[in-house]
Amino acid sequence: MNKQLPRATKAAILVEQRQPLVVDEVGLPESLDVGQVLVRVHYSGICGSQLGEIDGVKGEDQFLPHLLGHEGSGTVLAVGPGVLHVAPDDTVVLHWRRGLGIQSATPVYRWNGTALNAGWVTTFNEYAVVSENRCTPVPPNSDLQVATLFGCAATTGFGVVENDARLRIGESIVVLGVGGIGLNVVQAASLVSAYPVIAVDLFDNRLELARQVGATHLINSSNADLGQEIQAILGTSGADVVVDTTGLPEMIQLGLARTKPQGRVVMVGVPGAGSQVGLFSLPLHFGKKL
After folding, report:
1. Are 47 and 70 in contact (CB under 8 A)?
2. pLDDT tens string for the chain (290 positions)?
3. How far is CA 73 from CA 96, 115, 133, in A?
4. Both ends of the chain: CA-CA distance in Å?
5. Alpha carbon of 231 to those of 238, 251, 283: distances in Å?
6. Last residue of one domain, picked from the residues 121, 150, 179
7. Is the N-terminal amide bond of 6 cis, ω within 30° of 0?
């Protein structure tokens, strides 16, 4: 690695679940392996799945301690052998989904004299060694704060609508939870001319944002009978699509109950470890999809 390039970085480290992250200096790899890219991270998002990782929602973490973050924006400082799709000085979005280029070996950072685990992309650090296929160039004049959303929230939300729900013009959709991903589900549903687009959340400020990006109906489920409110809008037939971003078993069950006989329920939120979702499975044999 060029001697002018950084040899260390400040990073937020997950040392123990359900405890605050440790911010400390971490040693960067001494050289870039095939397909690796050194990026100066300008902005990072924090996804609900990262919060779940910190809180141990999926159970015990076998890779502690490790770095975090899978959506960000930055500038390429150097590239390793074989890298063709990004170059030094490129402005890039960092993302968790595979893109173009090599999937490299995961980098090995050093912390307190020992190896520190990391995945193909991390963004809770000032400098990151990222796999080429987790970096996508964007125009240099991009708003880099907004660009972080293309790393997860926007692409996940739009992907749910286009690839998982396969929502089409005129179909109805209920979005349970309108945080970062839910808002992008709403926006994508509006862009394909779904109707109605029903946003559900506990907080009025989120519901207002959902209205701004295309929701046609808003339900604050903290002070309403959610099932009755959905039925009042859609009638007894239910929705074509329900997308759950909460991971709460009761919301998943409600989604199944409030979709049409051949409707689709897309689970985006992850239920906590040990959670159980009870369902009547017969409709799944006759066209309903989960």
Report:
1. yes
2. 444 789 999 999 999 999 999 999 999 999 999 999 999 999 999 988 888 889 888 888 889 999 999 999 999 999 999 999 999 999 999 999 999 999 999 999 999 999 999 999 999 999 999 999 999 999 999 999 999 999 999 999 999 999 999 999 999 999 999 999 999 999 999 999 999 999 999 999 999 999 999 999 999 999 989 999 999 999 999 999 999 999 999 999 999 999 999 999 999 988 877 778 888 888 888 888 88
3. 12, 25, 14
4. 48
5. 7, 15, 19
6. 150
7. no
Look at residue 2 and tell me if it is in a domain: no
pTM of this structure = 0.85
Q: Which residues constitute the domain of residue 114?
A: 8-150
Query: Which tokens is 68 given?
Result: 């975090």
Residue 164 domain flag = yes
Show which of 110, 133, 150 is a domain's final residue.
Answer: 150
Distances (CA, A) of 165 to 151, 160, 173, 228, 290: 20, 6, 9, 23, 10
Amino acid sitting at position 36: Q
